[in-house]
Design goal:
This protein is mainly α. The chain contains five helices and no strands.
Amino acid sequence: KLGSDDKAVRAAAVQALGAIGTAGRGATPQLVAALSDSAGVVRRRAAEALGAVGADPKIALPPLAALLADANARAQVEAALAMGRVAVSSAHRGEPSAPGTSPWEA
C-alpha cells in the first residue's frame, strides 16, 4: 500500500504502521522512505508513525531532522514531535541517540 498511486492510501498505510506501536518498529526503513513522499500528508503521518513505533534513533533522527525544513508546516511539527518520541523511547530502552541529532548538543 505504501507504493500506491493514491496519496490517501499511502497516508493510511503509514498511519496504520504507527497505530500498531512498537510492533511496527521493523517498518522503520519504509517509514523513513515515506518521509520523502511527494504528498505532505504522507510525510506528516510517516513522521508521526516513526515516533509511535519508537524507531531506531540512528536511522530515524537524521531524516526527521531534515524534515524540520519541509515546506509543509504540519510535517515540520510532526517531525519535531517524533524526534522527541524517538529519543525518549530510545532512552527508555537504554540506547544512545544518534550523534549530532540532538538540538541540545553543542
